[in-house]
Design goal:
By secondary structure, this protein is α+β, with helices and mostly antiparallel strands. It has one helix spanning 2-30, and strands at 35-43, 49-57, 65-72, 85-87, 91-97, 100-105, 111-114, 117-118, 121-127.
Length: 128
């Protein structure tokens, strides 16, 4: 019985090792194919929060996407989608107070995310 299990166990371990090595190699070679380019960095009135307007590009099959993230001042800007607002056209922002941000966007644009509160900041959207 043990003689029959040994080749099966060995095969399973080899398959697992090959799979893990392949995943590591692919992640190392290609990583995240998306990239962010910061367009504007706008700190809150006290400087405790930072609003990042950026363009996200995920390669030839997708277009550029204007996005917004609100982070704490000490947070590193991540290579991720925006955590507040995502659209297909440019927009602008205005801090209305320490805890309030206004997003001015083209109401004809397609919006993919419009969060009303992020990191303790209330967001108002004004379509023009």
């Amino acid at each position: 019985m043990i003689k029959k299990l040994k080749p099966i166990l060995t095969t399973a371990i080899v398959i697992l090792v090959v799979f893990m090595a392949g995943k590591y190699l692919l992640d190392t070679l290609f990583g995240d194919m998306c990239g962010n380019e910061i367009v504007h960095t706008v700190p809150s009135p006290s400087g405790e929060k930072v609003a990042y307007i950026f363009s996200r590009d995920c390669g030839a099959t997708t277009g550029f996407s204007p996005q917004l993230s609100i982070l704490d001042k000490d947070d590193k800007f991540p290579n991720k989608s925006g955590n507040t607002f995502r659209t297909n056209k440019n927009f602008s922002i205005v801090w209305v107070g320490e805890k309030k941000l206004q997003v001015i966007y083209d109401k004809e644009s397609e919006t993919y995310e419009m969060d009303k509160r992020v990191n303790g900041i209330g967001i108002d959207y004004v379509g023009k």
